Amino acid sequence: MIANLVQLAAGEEQNPLLPPGPELLVGTIAFAIVFFFFWKKLLPNINKVLEERRTAIEGGIEEAESMKVEAQSVLEQYKAQLAEARHEAARLRQEAQEQGAALIAEMRAEGQRQREEIIAAGHAQIEADRKAASSALRQDVGKLATDLAGKLVGESLEDHARQSRVIDRFLDELDQKAEAAR
Fold this sequence. Notes:
Keywords: ATP synthesis, Cell membrane, CF(0), Coiled coil, Hydrogen ion transport, Ion transport, Membrane, Transmembrane, Transmembrane helix, Transport
Strand content: under 5%
Protein name: ATP synthase subunit b
Largest sheet: none
Number of domains: 1
Number of strands: 0
Structural class: mainly alpha
Helix content: over 70%
Membrane topology: Single-pass membrane protein
Shape: rod-shaped
InterPro entries: ATP_synth_B-like_membr_sf, ATP_synth_b/b'su_bac/chlpt, ATP_synth_F0_bsu_bac, ATP_synthase_B_chain
Distance between the termini: 159 Å
Number of helices: 3
Order of helices and strands: HHH
Coiled coil: 61-102
């Protein structure tokens, strides 16, 4: 084959695009040796490195996906807890308002009760003071009236029982006239 190529090459003019036969043969053998070396030694190492990179990238993607899913889950839990906390805060706020309203109503009722007690005690005290003043006034008026009557008549009117009856009758008549005038 090489000899044929050499004869062809000698008989014909050399085509500039085709290399001479022996160079073509040596180039093909050299290419086969380099190709075999690459195929047996370098290509497996390159494939191994590429496979490791592919595995690392896929692992990273899977890890990122799992982290994304986990982050989404944590976000959902956070949102649920936040919603629950808001609901709880609203419930506590409502409960505090109700307790405040109840406390205010209770305080008002207690204040009203105390006011009524104070008014009743004041009325009772006024009534007691009025009765005491009325009694003291009756005694003083009676004493003055009997002293005055005794000075006018010129004798002493010392009968105490009769004196009390006359004074009481006189003051009762005055009270009746005062009530009728109202």
